[in-house]
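Data availability (excerpt). The following record was deposited with the supplementary files.
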Amino acid sequence: MVRYQILALNHISSHGLHRLPAARYTVGKSVVEPDAILVRSFDMHAMTIPDSVRAIGRAGAGTNNIPVARMSERGVPVFNAPGANANAVKELVLAALLMAARNIVPALRFVGSLDANAPDLAKHVEDAKKQFAGVELPGRTLGVVGLGAIGGLVADTALKLGMKVIGFDPEITVEAAWRLPSAVRKAQSLEELLKQSDFVTLHLPLNERTRHLIDASRLAGMKPGAALLNFARDAIVDEAAVAAALRAGTIKHFLCDFPSAALAGLPNAGMLPHLGASTAEAEENCATMVVDQVREYLENGTIANAVNFPDVEMPRESPFRVAIANANVPNMLGQISTAMARAGLNIHTMVNKSRGGMAYTLVDADSAIDDGTIRAIAAIDGVLSVRAIPRLDDA
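Predicted structure:
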């Protein structure tokens, strides 16, 4: 019987792990030769990842803690759970939006500094409260940078609160665009959005294009007195530049989900300990999604929501299947077909898809695929990984 070994580097919700049948899966923190790794926040960059690993599943959206490029070179898909924690993050962003509008962070700090036993406490509070007067959200403009699952939910919620919403996302997908409320106005540039928004919220992945996207120059271009919210990734903003903008009064508030030494002690900077996805529901949703994806990949070779592979699905029509990850170069399918024909294998059905420089092929054959054929395919220049996938009910 086929049995899979799963290494869990963090606590993964039992709602997800229970979807791995105990008869076929061993899951633990001390698995030595895992077929797959499940991870949340553990930093895998310095980790020696065993050669046995066929897949990595991140129970969340971001994959900055995983060496994705290195895994791509090995033909290992890295799965994530896009949208599974979107509602949790949306609700925290909404809380931050209200905190900025009503000056709650400085107000809380003021109350925390009071002497509760002072005889003039009530008068002192009454005299001081005017400095914390805020604004109401209806009619104010929210700029949403990044209109994926989370950004789209934030935009929709803001509209329902009576806000005007302007969005900017040059890489928006067709699916995200269809989901987006028609009332969201499109900005032609990030600078246009920053200039017009009373509140700006960031919902972007961290990569070389987005690192320090919000820098001193862009902060200077924000609407005077605006609030900036970052519940995406810390390095999307230049925190030193944000601190300088707060001190100069260029922006009024900065709220984020990442503690920072550069912002510590600033009265209008509110920092949370990365609580975006920290709800029981989000942890369950993320674990369930990513476990299902990893299981489908191990058992059937199916790929959905891998950050470095194309989505590939092919119904099982034969017990004999081979999965091949390879560089996206000419004549690869021809070489794979030739290797199988030389072994006397008839191809029942095949699907091949590519994503950038990566391609992935599933082949169902009419008879068993022996180890010699697997070695022959693995020897083809450009093949990154290859494995025979037995049908579980026939293994």
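Summary of structural features: The domain at 310-395 is CATH 3.30.70.260 (Alpha-Beta Plaits).
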